[in-house]
Design a protein that fits this description.
It catalyses: [protein]-peptidylproline (omega=180) = [protein]-peptidylproline (omega=0). Its EC number is 5.2.1.8. One of its GO terms (molecular function) is peptidyl-prolyl cis-trans isomerase activity. Keywords: Isomerase, Rotamase. This is peptidylprolyl isomerase. By secondary structure, this protein is an alpha+beta fold. The chain has a domain of about 110 residues: Chitinase A, domain 3 (Roll). The protein is about 35% helix and about 15% strand. The protein contains five helices and seven strands, in the order αααββββαβαββ. Strands 1, 2, 3, 4, 5, 6 and 7 form a seven-stranded antiparallel β-sheet that branches. The radius of gyration is 44 Å and the shape is rod-shaped.
Length: about 250
């Protein structure tokens, strides 16, 4: 006797076969037990077992893929964050280093521009007994300040290379102090006492008349070594309380 056994080509795409035979699918919690003696039942039970195994493998594969992807995304996110943080920090440090070097000086406000610098090359240098040297950028027409009087002045202080380490122009405020009273460095005191209101002067201050202890560097400010020479461009704006009414 020949049995009519239904056969299936197992080379078919399993998802397509599973979708078309949804009535044969077993619940995910079911297991394959003893097969029926009916030949057709045997084939059906085998198919159910194969479909169940396929579904389980797909679920496991998806779970594994999701876990791996999450781990990969998490790792990549951490790497990207660390890379971004390092990049920003390097840019920030690089910016501070550039500012700490006092660069670029041409971006800072000045009392003597490029045209002034060229004219200053032809101005004779004056040297005093103390070793102070200066060049008059502009000779003022007002009075000279008496010792102990307050003066209002603008200044731009530089190291010999031209890098600015202090400036009243950057602060946006005229500097007022008592001239000749030791409130500022010796070279600035001496240089201002012989100026006239309205005048501008470049002071070449030697180390002994500058900063005995030096100045530390700061963002946008170069270091000034102890007893090192400095340069001051200074303008004498007015002398508070000393007004000249004569024509």
């Amino acid at each position: 006797m020949t049995s009519n056994i239904t056969t299936f080509n197992l080379g078919y795409d399993m998802p397509t076969m599973a979708a078309s035979l949804s009535s044969l699918l077993l619940p995910l919690g079911s297991t394959c037990k003893s097969l029926s003696c009916n030949p057709q039942g045997i084939a059906a039970d085998r198919l159910r077992c194969l479909v169940l195994q396929y579904r389980r493998s797909v679920v496991k594969a998806k779970a594994s893929y999701t876990t791996e992807c999450a781990a990969m995304v998490n790792t990549n996110s951490r790497r990207d964050f660390l890379g971004l943080a390092l990049g920003i920090s390097s840019l920030f440090v690089g910016s501070l280093e550039a500012k700490g070097a006092g660069l670029p000086p041409e971006d800072k406000p000045k009392l003597c521009d490029e045209a002034c610098e060229k004219e200053l090359e032809n101005v004779p240098m004056v040297t005093t007994e103390s070793g102070l040297q200066y060049k008059d950028i502009k000779v003022g027409q007002g009075p000279s300040p008496p010792v102990g009087f307050q003066v209002a002045a603008n200044y731009v202080a530089m190291v010999p290379s031209g890098q600015v380490f202090d400036s009243s122009l950057e602060k946006g405020q005229i500097y007022i102090f008592r001239v000749g009273s030791g409130q500022v460095i010796k070279g600035l005191d001496e240089g201002l006492l012989s100026m006239k209101v309205g005048g501008k002067r470049r002071l070449y201050i030697p180390g002994p008349l500058a900063f005995p202890k030096g100045l530390t560097s700061a963002p946008g400010r170069p270091r000034v070594a102890p007893n090192s020479p400095v340069i001051f461009d200074v303008s004498l704006e007015y002398i508070p309380g000393l007004e000249v009414d004569e024509e």
